[in-house]
Specification:
The protein has a single domain, classed as 60s Ribosomal Protein L30, Chain: A (2-Layer Sandwich). The chain starts with 21 loop residues before the first strand and ends with a strand. The protein is globular and about 40 Å long. The strands form two sheets. It has a six-stranded mixed beta sheet with strand order 1-2-4-9-10-11, with no helix packed on it. With 210 residues, the chain is an alpha/beta fold. It has four helices and eleven strands.
């Protein structure tokens, strides 16, 4: 008698998302949204994790726990010198625009300023002029929030190592990993390349280590 063999299970096809920033993260078993320099993202989805890598740049993770809406930005420089913010694709690199845009988008989704939980990350002293840029970014974001009367619930700023941030806006949980020294040059070069790219373009609550 011939024993029938069980057909091999075929692997599930990869998930396809409309947004190129999105992919399925097999480690966390959730949808991951990669936030690049000069970018921001706001969501009310329960199954989204926002991910970014920071050198001298700074990110703010902001959430309203009652409205269950939150988001993250990633800016490279404190403020635009000419005051002309223009389109987001070029000017979210500046902290003044990035913070206003993130806060306003959260408020448009039902958030309230009095309920916001804010956590800050980045501003490391990396290669070349990263020390000066990181310190300026830290000074800017802390002074900005102080002037706006918005308290900071958690922070990991400064130092000499890049950081990878995983932010879950629905719960407010943040996971942070300090990257190895070998990653410093790569992160610094990526930030430098983005600064050059946008400069030549036409301008139209706790933290866990893992």
């Amino acid at each position: 008698m011939t024993r029938s063999s069980t057909p091999a299970r075929q692997p599930a096809p990869p998930r396809v998302y409309d947004d190129a920033r999105m992919h399925h993260d097999p480690e966390f078993k959730t949808k991951a949204v990669k936030i690049l320099p000069g970018d921001h993202y706001v969501t009310r989805a329960e199954d989204e994790m926002l991910v970014t890598v920071l050198g001298s740049c700074v990110s703010a993770c902001i959430r309203d726990p009652a409205a269950q809406v939150g988001g993250l930005n990633h800016f490279l420089l404190p403020e635009g010198g000419d005051g002309e913010w223009g389109v987001a694709s070029s000017n979210l690199r500046y902290g003044n625009f990035a913070m206003e845009r993130l806060l306003n988008d959260i408020l448009k989704c039902g958030g309230r300023r009095s309920r916001l939980e804010i956590k800050l990350f980045g501003g490391a002293s990396l290669l070349e002029n990263g020390a000066a840029v990181g310190a300026r970014n830290i000074h800017f974001v802390e002074e900005y929030l102080r002037a706006e009367g918005l308290p900071v619930f958690g922070r990991s700023l400064g130092g000499h190592a890049p950081r990878r941030i995983h932010f879950f806006p629905f719960t407010g949980k943040v996971l942070m990993k300090m990257l190895r020294n070998a990653d410093e040059r790569r992160v610094a070069e990526e930030e430098k390349a983005f600064k050059q790219q946008v400069s030549t373009a036409q301008v139209a609550g706790s933290v866990e280590l893992f």
